[in-house]
Design brief:
The complex is a heterodimer.
Chain A lengths: L18 E12 L6 E12 L3 E5 L6 H9 L6 E6 L2 E2 L5 H11 E4 L11 H11 L4 H14 L15 H13 L5 E5 L7 H15 L5 E5 L11 E6 L2 E7 H13 L1
Parallel strand pairs in A: 3-8, 3-9, 6-7, 7-8
Antiparallel strand pairs in A: 1-2, 1-4, 4-5, 9-10
Chain B lengths: L1 H10 L1 H32 L2 H4 L4 E4 L15 H7 L4 E15 L5 E9 L10 E5 L9 E5 H4 L17 E4 L2 E10 L9 E5 H7 L9 E6 L5 H12 L2 E4 H15 L2 H30 L1 H9 L4 H32 L13 H28 L9
Parallel strand pairs in B: 3-8, 5-7
Antiparallel strand pairs in B: 1-9, 1-10, 2-3, 2-6, 2-9, 4-7, 5-8, 6-7
The chains are: A alpha/beta, B alpha+beta.
Bound molecules: adenosine-5'-triphosphate and magnesium ion.
Chain lengths: 257, 381
């Protein structure tokens, strides 16, 4: 019933305290022969608990690929991933699936709400996947919808909502089971700037929860200001990490260019 | 999750109805064709239900009840002398022409019963007295023969007791009316005494069609039949044996089973094709959603279960509609007996199993696709 991973496979002593995500030497190639592309060429990455962490970089540099590897939805060819002290690399597919189910919330660029299910049903999915009963799951889901400003619309279908509202439903869905890691790929790129800021407000609120980490891949310099830390990527590697003062100057330079 | 799986399917009205419709059609085709086939088969053995006798003895080369090869009159005595036979009587069976009041000719199934015992008599008399068959020129006709478009032609009403018609220029006077099950050839039954039947039928060297026998009380019919065969060289069947042999003959010698079987298989194939195709495209259209579920932690097992549930549900609904339509067909159109219709419970379950198999196959394609699905696809635009 409990989907947490056996402790024999965790190695907390190897991981710094407070580290949420740790990745070393991640290599990932797609295709074979002439069509083979190295999307990740030995990427190192770290994110801490309690932070909203942006991953930025030019198109095609491997941001989505890295995020997929960190989330355990894509297996890397080389390298290791640790999430909250659990070594993801080396777990079986079903163990990784169970780990994701319990510990990770997802927000996608295209929202990916199930169009034939009502909002409350969409939001209750992670709870149901974790074994909750329907009544309990829908009660919690309704509460979450309330929190993202969609109270009273539980029975509507996603198609009745604007893009920003749909993304709020997706946020409710990503947070409903209180995951420790929230993974977002371009959550604001399909939205206008005002709506984008509302979404980022919600996400940075979510990052306040103790022990949680929110990881966001983005192209959008307007949202850099929400970051506690930014990892910069280029050509399959993480080339720089900005926090504190270096973060301010990075944001300044990016917003000017 | 399973409830949501059903909602996902129901939400896609077009595919849902396509699936239910395809499966209903397939179920209808299979069960309706099977029922008509069974009905037709039952027509081939209706003699055994329209004439009641324990042991049926025929010429050595005869395999089925609708075929007659004339036997020698002395064969009756040979059968009587077999140990265990209580009594044995001759039977005439032949298709003759009768002339109705208006002068039109109608084909009839003539049956001549031994006048002493009237053994082999029709089980359901609805008017008249069977023993009156012993009177000269007396016949008992079935309700079909009595109809205005049969021997009642020219009367303006169905034949009644006391009415007369002609068989081979001889008078046939109705002394009773019985109910029969329709025979494969579709000719109405006319019963007379054996001797009378020989008068009606065109004269031939040998006129005995069959012998009917009753075993002594307490003896096993099959044993006695076996003994008759051994001692006389004729063929003797109990009713179940003759039914089996007749059906076997139909399977071996007519195109009927093949053509029905083809249609039934076609129904299955159409079901697989329509359902498989539609369900697979349902899965493909939902691939992003399924990928998202997979990313969120739905296992392959769970997704497979959801897909199976979805396909089985449309299977059950489609089958329900299909079998309902078949039943409706049976209760309305086929009530007249044309086309024949005979539904048996065992086949209902077989057809249900076939439909669920179709659904499982359809789901299997989807399950394979989903099992190979990388959850990371949901991050791609
Ligand atoms: N499934 C795949 N098959 C083949 N090549 C892939 C696949 N996914 C990614 N790639 C390639 O890997 C490289 C990195 O892709 P990725 O999507 O990670 O970049 P990205 O930084 O997210 O880009 P964008 O900002 O455009 O989303 C690209 O060259 C891309 O073409
Ligand atoms: Mg990307």
């Amino acid at each position: 019933m409990n989907p947490t991973v056996p402790s024999s496979k965790t190695s907390p002593q190897a991981q710094p305290v407070g580290q949420a995500v740790g990745a070393r030497g991640i290599v990932k190639a797609f295709g074979v022969g002439d069509a083979r592309t190295l999307a990740l060429k030995g990427a190192d990455f770290e994110a801490r608990e309690g932070e909203l962490h942006l991953i930025v970089g030019p198109s095609g540099c491997g941001k989505t690929t890295l995020l997929s590897v960190l989330a355990g939805t894509l297996a890397s060819d080389q390298g290791e991933v640790h999430l909250f002290g659990t070594r993801l690399t080396g777990l079986s597919t079903s163990e990784v699936t169970r780990f994701r189910c319990r510990n990770i919330g997802f927000i996608f660029q295209q929202f990916n709400l199930i169009p034939t299910l009502s909002l409350v049903e969409n939001v209750s999915v992670p709870l149901l996947l974790n074994g909750a009963g329907r009544r309990e799951a829908e009660a919690k889901a309704a509460e979450r919808l309330q929190q993202v400003g969609l109270g009273g619309r539980e029975r509507q279908l996603p198609t009745q909502l604007s893009g920003g509202q749909q993304q709020r439903v997706a946020i409710a869905r990503a947070l409903v089971h209180e995951p420790r890691l929230v993974i977002c790929d371009e959550p604001t790129s399909a939205l206008d700037s005002v709506t984008g800021h509302q979404i980022m407000d919600l996400l940075s609120g979510a990052a306040q929860a103790p022990g949680r980490c929110v990881l966001i891949v983005t192209h959008d310099p307007r949202v850099y200001g929400y970051a506690d830390r930014i990892s910069e990527m280029e050509d399959g590697r993480v080339t720089g990490v900005h926090a504190g003062e270096s973060l301010s100057s990075f944001i300044h330079s990016e917003n000017r260019s | 999750m399973f409830l949501l799986a059903l909602k996902m399917l129901l939400g896609d009205r077009a595919k849902y109805w396509m699936l239910v419709g395809g499966l209903a059609f397939s179920s209808l085709l299979m069960t309706q064709q099977y029922s008509v086939f069974q009905g037709l088969l039952s027509w081939t053995t209706s003699h055994m239900r329209n004439m009641r006798a324990s042991i049926w003895i025929v010429e050595a080369r005869v395999d089925q009840v609708n075929e007659t090869k004339a036997m020698r009159d002395t064969d009756v005595n040979r059968v009587r002398s077999v140990e265990g036979v209580d009594f044995a009587v001759p039977l005439f069976q032949g298709v003759l022409k009768a002339r109705a009041q208006d002068g039109s000719d109608k084909m009839i199934q003539m049956i001549g019963l031994h006048s002493g015992t009237l053994y082999g008599r029709p089980p359901r008399m609805i008017a008249g007295d069977i023993t009156q068959l012993r009177l000269p020129n007396a016949v008992i006709i079935d309700t079909v023969a009595a109809e205005v478009n049969r021997l009642g032609a020219g009367m303006g009403r169905p034949l009644r007791i006391g009415d007369a018609f002609e068989i081979n220029d001889r008078e046939a006077r109705v002394v009773g009316i019985c109910e029969t099950e329709r025979h494969f050839f579709g000719y109405p039954y006319v019963f007379s005494s054996y001797d009378q039947a020989l008068q009606y039928a065109p004269r031939q060297r040998k006129m005995l069609s069959m012998i009917l026998a009753e075993p002594k009380p307490g003896l096993n019919e099959a044993d006695v039949a076996q003994r008759i065969m051994k001692e006389t060289g004729l063929r003797a069947f109990t009713v179940p044996q003759l039914e089996k042999s007749t059906l076997k003959w139909v399977w071996a010698n007519t195109g009927i089973p093949i053509s029905f079987l083809t249609t039934i298989i076609l129904g299955f194939v159409v079901g697989v094709a329509v359902c498989g195709q539609t369900f697979y495209s349902f899965v493909l259209e939902n691939l992003r959603n399924l990928g998202a579920l997979k990313a969120m932690g739905a296992s392959n097992m769970l997704l497979a279960g959801m897909l199976l549930l979805q396909s089985m549900t449309v299977g059950l609904i489609g089958f329900g509609i299909g079998i309902g339509m078949t039943a409706l067909f049976g209760l309305t159109i086929a009530k007249s007996g044309q086309p024949p219709f005979l539904m048996d419970a065992a086949f209902v379950f077989e057809a249900l199993a076939a439909v669920l198999l179709i659904c499982a196959l359809a789901a299997l394609f989807g399950i394979r696709r989903v099992a190979k699905l990388e959850p990371a696809i949901v991050f791609r635009g």
